[in-house]
Every structure is written in C-alpha cells, then in structure tokens.
Amino acid sequence: SIEEFLTAGERAGLKSQLARIGPDNPVLADDIARPAPNAPGQWVEWVDQYVPSEDGAQVLAVGRDVTGRHIAELNLADSEARFRDLADKSADVVWRFVIDPYPHFDYVSPSVERILGYPPQFFVEDATRFLDVLDDEGRRLIEGALAGKPLPDRCDFHFRRSDGSIVIGEMHNTVIRGGLQGVGRDVTELRHLQEELAALALHDPLTGLANRRLLDELLVKALARTQRSDNPLAVAFIDLDGFKAVNDTYGHDAGDAVLCETARRLLSTVRATDVVARIGGDEFVVVYEANDPHGGDVVARIEAAISLPFTVTALTSVVCPASVGYADTHTVGVDPIALLAAADAAMYEVKKARHATAGGDQRPRSSSPDET
User: Fold this and answer.
1) I need a labelling partner for 338 at 20 to 30 A (CA). Which of 15, 103, 128, 244 fits?
2) Which of 335, 340, 264, 339 is nearest to 302 (CA)?
C-alpha cells in the first residue's frame, strides 16, 4: 500500500498536496525534497497531476531523483551560513548587490553601522540610500556601473557619515553572477597619513614651500608651457646674507624664524601661480613669467621685501638682505638645469659684489624695536 511505500515525511507531503490539488490547480510540485525510503542518502522531488476520469478523480504522482541538486543546495546553504557568520563578525564591511528582480543589496554586514553610522537594513531596504551618502565622484562611478560600465577591482569612495563627517572607504569589488559583491574598509586615517607623507616628500617641512624635488617637477612643466606659448620664464635665485651669523649669534630657533618669515614674504610678493621653493639652508628659488604685465620688477620687489628687519626675539630684530640672481629662457634657453645654474651663478655675482662693498663683514645687523 502507499502507506508502506512512502516514508512518514512523504506521507505528510502527500496529504498537503492532496489538500491543494484539484480542477483549478491540476499540477502541483512539492517544494521540499524528500529522502528516498529504500535508498539512504538519496532524495526525491514529487510532482502531482490531477487527472479527472469517469470513475472518479485520480492523482498521477511522478518522483524524480534530485540527490545531486539537493546536496548542492545543502552545501550552498552551509557555505552561505559560514559566509554570513564570518561576514557578520568582520571588522570590514562585507556586501552583496544583485540586479534581479530589481537592483538591491541582499546583504550588508553589521560593521557598516560602526563605520558609517547607519544600520545594515538602512541600505538593504533602499539601495539608493547608498548613492545619497557618496560624494559626486563616487556617485558617478556607481551610476556608470549600473549602466554597464566596468567597476574597478579596487577604488576609494568618500562617504558622508550619519553625523556629517567624511569617511574614506577602500572598496574591493568582485563581479558575480547577477551582481557584485565586495569588501570595504575604513582607510580615512591611512589616506590622511599617506597625504601627509606625500606632502613631506615634496615640501620643505619648516616653511611649507616646495622642496628641490617638487621644484624640479614644476619647473619642467612650466618650461613645457613656455615652449607652447613662447612666453619667457624667469628664475630668481635667492640667498640670505648673514644668515649663518644669525644662527651662530641667536640660535637655530632665531634662524628658523627668519626662514619662515622669508617664505611668507616671498609668497606675498609673487603671484599665486608662481613657484616658490626652499632648496636648502637659506637658499630660495622663485619661478615666474618674466613678461607678466602685472608682475613689475619681481627681483626688485623680492629685494625690498627681504630687506626689512626680521624679529628674532621680543627685543631683537636682524637684517638679512637678499642676494638675488636672475636668469630667463630668452637668454639661457629652456634647459631646467642650465636655467637654475645661470640664476645661481648670477646670485653669487651679486653676493660677491655686496661682500666687497661691505668689506667682508658678515655679522648680522641687529637693532632694537624702536630703532627699526
């Protein structure tokens, strides 16, 4: 009898099917794979068909061996459970985005709340909220991906937290069937540190001016523009007279104050588009367009600005006039090394003449505040 042929689980399934099958619902598949009674480890899926007849309605039941598929589903479910367990405990944000039946997140790990201040369900309920917390660049990148453009395997996004602060998230993206999945981590402090290190690599740590490395890069770019526009480019090489004596007499803190004030005066003297660099010790370089109609005599303005006294203590100020050498592309050409060398040589000629006039006295000239 059927009672002997079916297992208890299959009998329960049969009763459930018979309660639903009928003329209005003639074909019905059991949505649960049942263990085969006489074949341990095998699974059967049943489909029932309602068959009307003169002798009364009958039900035709077809059982299909679905062992392979069922085991695969069990393994997938187990893998999914392990994935979620790991993802739920991860400090990084683990997410999965699927397209069908509509674009949405079907998983976002709980760590998103610690990083962005929003619970996972905030994004799962409405994926457009993810776009709302992105900056313009990140939004364009995601909208492009939804339109079919490839998304980089790794990229940075700038998010706005629930408290309004900005978080930089490094996202690792992987294409999966029907969508994307990935892992994101908070790299805000790391990126800021990298920016600081990059700035230190290209800027003088004392004055904040460009260092020699950055000067070389900017000079090459400026010379390329000069060749295209035929506007002459000028270099002013600046050295402070008597600076060593300031260090020897008043100490390195006083010398640092003079250097920082020199940097400030140079920046205020030239245009914002000009390059100001400290290339070592008390040597500075300014790169600018020589025929700027609004620039006037840049060398004269630099000399006038540096000639003013520097305050090194509350009661003491010193004078460290600038020896300024000048060279431009009309006389030297567009070779960056030759241009800097020519300006450097011109500076030493100025310093030599000033030294001869001063009779070799390189002591710092100081005065009280009243005298200045």
Assistant:
1) 244
2) 264
